[in-house]
Write a structure and sequence with these properties.
By secondary structure, the chain is α+β, with helices and mostly antiparallel strands. The chain folds into three domains: about 100 residues, Sandwich (Immunoglobulin-like), CATH 2.60.40; about 180 residues, no CATH class; about 110 residues, no CATH class. About 20% of the residues lie in helices and about 30% in strands. The strands form four sheets. Strands 1, 2, 7, 19, 20, 21, 22, 23 and 24 form a nine-stranded mixed beta sheet that branches. Strands 10, 11, 12, 13, 14, 15, 16 and 17 form an eight-stranded mixed beta sheet that branches. A four-stranded antiparallel beta sheet has the order 5-4-3-6, with no helix packed on it. A hairpin with a 4-residue loop joins strand 19 and strand 20. The radius of gyration is 25 Å and the shape is elongated. The relative contact order is 0.13. It binds zinc ion (ZN) (2 copies). One zinc ion binds next to loops. GO terms for molecular function: cyclin binding; ubiquitin conjugating enzyme binding; ubiquitin protein ligase activity. InterPro entries: UBQ-conj_enz_E2-bd_prot. This is Ubiquitin-conjugating enzyme E2-binding protein.
């Protein structure tokens, strides 16, 4: 067989998924042509790799965790004529066998770039162009937004969607609706959402939550564009709680003009997404600081936290016009496929629509679009017949995706 004929041939698709809770590795192999008596699937001597021989070509992946089975064919004879084969293997270390490798599964979730791992007196840079966004002189301390504050904030967003569309705005003129607004306002105030209890940005302090960093406007060099009419840029609408008037803001990089975040009128500070920032490559910075979290890492952390807090596996990623419903199937797996190996991930289902009744994370439309791209990419890693799921006709088809999580 010549090299070119090998190159033209499609390779088998190999996929392995480790479920730490069950201590099992699921393996799925799709062949580009029917199996023959010479098709073989085996595990390497160290238990670390899956190797498939088919039509004189060997394809292999590193398993997400080592298998108990070592240096052997996968159980069962492979008869000719198959396009798909699947196995379930025991992991070398699992919760069931009490092995060490299972320990990471027990470590509680830590958000990437929490205040604990960040050092002050360091420049905060735009990840794209490395322009200084907050200088070391003005950054004296990092603080986590208190988790109860985070929870309250989430609850606030959830019960009180910070977007007023034209329709509602018009209807708010009728006295009934105005009373409703006032009623909900005082209800919020009595539950501690009044302006006096809110956390405000403070000079010298970088506040961090699961996905963002909040800086005082005088510490942050971002260009902030205020637009008093939400219709100018409906992508970035925040509600001013005092006036109930929508104010659109964009916080953009002073160097490359990329949108890094928004001006948060509730907290009176610049709120920047962690995945838009980086720290200088300096020995003074901790290792965690030099491993900047991706959008995927931050989203997985936020989804996980929402599920932990509410018990609901469905979360709506709500933009102004864009919406995605995410449904967490398994918050913690690891997988390997032909293109990526040993990746920690969350397995979820998603649909291109919002849902009134579910938990919401309010995001700019541009971020919801980025997330859609991420989920489409996360769908491509799955075996061909595990990309879609439908439970009933009414609910529609769900797309399956793997969302990469930070390594713990
Ligand atoms: Zn409300
Ligand atoms: Zn920039």
């Amino acid at each position: 067989m010549t090299t070119s004929s090998i190159e033209r041939r499609a390779l088998p698709s190999l996929y392995a998924e480790f479920l730490p809770k069950l201590g099992r590795i699921s393996i799925v192999v799709h062949l580009p042509s029917q199996s023959t008596w010479t098709t073989k699937a085996l595990i390497s001597n160290d238990g670390e790799r899956l190797i498939v021989y088919h039509e004189r070509i060997s394809t292999e992946i590193i398993l997400p965790t080592a298998a108990k089975l070592r240096g052997e064919h996968l159980p069962g004879e492979i008869p000719p004529g198959l396009f798909k084969m699947s196995w379930r293997l025991l992991a070398q270390d699992s919760l069931l066998t009490g092995g060490l490798a299972s320990q990471p599964a027990l470590i509680p979730e830590v958000a990437p770039w929490s205040a604990l791992v960040l050092r002050p007196r360091t420049d905060v840079l735009c990840r794209k162009c490395e322009t200084v966004v907050v200088s070391r002189e003005s950054l004296k301390e990092w603080k986590d937004l208190p988790s109860e504050n985070w929870a309250e904030m989430m609850e606030f967003w959830h019960c009180h969607k910070p977007v007023i569309n034209n329709d509602q705005r018009n209807r708010a003129d009728s006295s009934d609706n105005a009373n409703d607004l006032k009623a909900s306002e005082s209800a919020l105030a009595s539950r501690g959402y009044g302006a006096n209890t809110a956390i405000f940005a403070q000079a010298g302090i970088g506040f961090v939550d699961l996905t963002r960093m909040l800086f005082h406007k005088e510490d942050c060099r971002c260009n902030v564009m205020f637009m008093n009419n939400a219709d100018i840029d409906p992508n970035l609408t925040l509600l001013n709680t005092q006036t109930h008037r929508s104010i659109s803001t964009v916080a953009s990089c002073p160097g490359c003009n990329a949108q890094l975040g928004v001006y948060d009128t509730r907290k009176d500070g610049v709120s920047i997404f962690k995945w838009m920032l980086k720290f200088a490559d300096s020995p003074a910075n901790s290792l965690s600081m030099l491993r900047p979290p991706t959008l995927s890492h931050c989203l997985a952390t936020a989804l996980f936290a929402t599920q932990e807090r509410t018990g609901s596996a469905k979360v709506v990623l709500q933009g102004d016009k864009e919406a995605i419903t995410a449904w967490i199937l398994n918050p913690r797996i690891s997988f390997s496929c032909n293109s990526k190996q040993k990746v920690s991930a969350m397995k979820l289902l998603w649909q291109n629509r919002g849902r009134e009744e579910e938990e919401e994370l309010i995001l700019p439309d541009s971020i919801v679009k980025d997330i859609r791209g991420l989920l489409q990419e996360g769908n491509s890693y799955l075996p061909p017949d595990e990309k879609m799921k439908q439970f009933n006709a009414q609910d529609g088809v769900w797309t399956v995706a793997l969302l990469e999580r930070p390594e713990q």
